[in-house]
Amino acid sequence: MTLSPIRRAAALLALAMPLPLAAAELAAPEGTILLTVNGAIANTNVDGTAAFDRAMLEELDPVTFETTTIWTDGVQSFTGVPLSRLMEVVGAEADSLSATAINDYAVQIPREDWVEDGAIVAYLNNGEAMSVRDKGPLWVVYPYDSNADYQTEVIYSRSIWQLDRITVEE
Question: Oxidoreductase molybdopterin-binding domain: which residues (predicted)?
Answer without folding.
Answer: 74-143
